Amino acid sequence: MERLQKVIANAGVASRRKAETLIATGHVTLNGKVVKEMGIKVDSTSAHIEVDGVPLTREKKVYYALYKPRQVISAVTDDKKRRVVTEYLEDIQERVYPIGRLDYDTSGLLLLTNDGDFANMMMHPKYKVDKTYVAKVSGLPTAEMLRQLRKGIMLEKRKTAPAKVKIISTDRRKNTAILSITIHEGMNHQVKNMLAAVGLPVSKLKRETYGFLTLDGLVSGEYRALKPIEVAEFKKIAELNEKPKHKNRPKLSRHD
Predict the structure, then answer these.
(1) Catalytic pick from 103, 105, 117, 256?
(2) Which GO cellular component terms are attached (predicted)?
């Protein structure tokens, strides 16, 4: 027995969070009846589930890396008719959705899948999967600014985890700099808001890496399937990071 939103996510319809929204807004039927209650457990092998009248089917799990261009929405659809990331994967049969998001004006590495468990593992902060961005900012970073970023910034009434930050280059004449910043969380506009909070507004942003994965071999708008060994490595990293780390305790002798 699995929660209904998890079954929907694992069928490749949407992320688990989006699946919860679909349930709450009456888009899901279970055995012919609309359900809006969260937490319902179902037998995915026998229950008849439909989303907007389309029956769920078990798809082969697939995983893709896309070099997202700027001015593209990290979504499956957009009510403003703007271009969305799934349009770049129109030739695949499975229904995939982006893992997390990159802002409309942010380019770079984006993962897409129809595996809800994998998507949750990549997005949830407890799994600590690093994502590295390159940001062009207005202003010249000081040691104090970098210290604040490395310590964590108060955003949305909570403190971010410490970021890894380094200066790539500075242009004193234009009063700009290029920074590399690595985080493992995924708050809305997090990198932009962190840098703005210390006085370094972002003018251009690109995600260069996701975990160990890079943009090597891709140009803007291109995608590729992840290799099975890459998917396995992501799962291994997440599982290792999830385990609590205990400090070494001194060994006790029989007489202690």
Answers:
(1) 103
(2) cytosol
**In a shared domain, residues 45 and 83:** no
Q: Where in the sequence is the domain holding 121, given as residue range(s)?
A: 63-125+213-238
Kindly state whether residue 246 falls inside one of the protein's structural domains. no
Six token digits for residue 221: 């708008």
pLDDT value at 63 more than 90: yes
Q: Are 153 and 159 in contact (CB under 8 A)?
A: yes
φ/ψ (deg, to 5) at 3: -65, 145
| Separation between Cα atoms, residue 82 and residue 70, nearest integer Å | 12
Residue 12: band (very low, low, confident or very high) from pLDDT cuts 50, 70, 90? confident
Is the pLDDT reported for residue 249 higher than 60? no
Question: What CATH number is associated with residue 21?
Answer: 3.10.290.10
Instruction: Answer yes or no: is 74 within a domain.
Output: yes
Concerning whether 103 is annotated as a catalytic residue, the answer is: yes
Q: Answer whether residue 144 is part of any domain.
A: yes
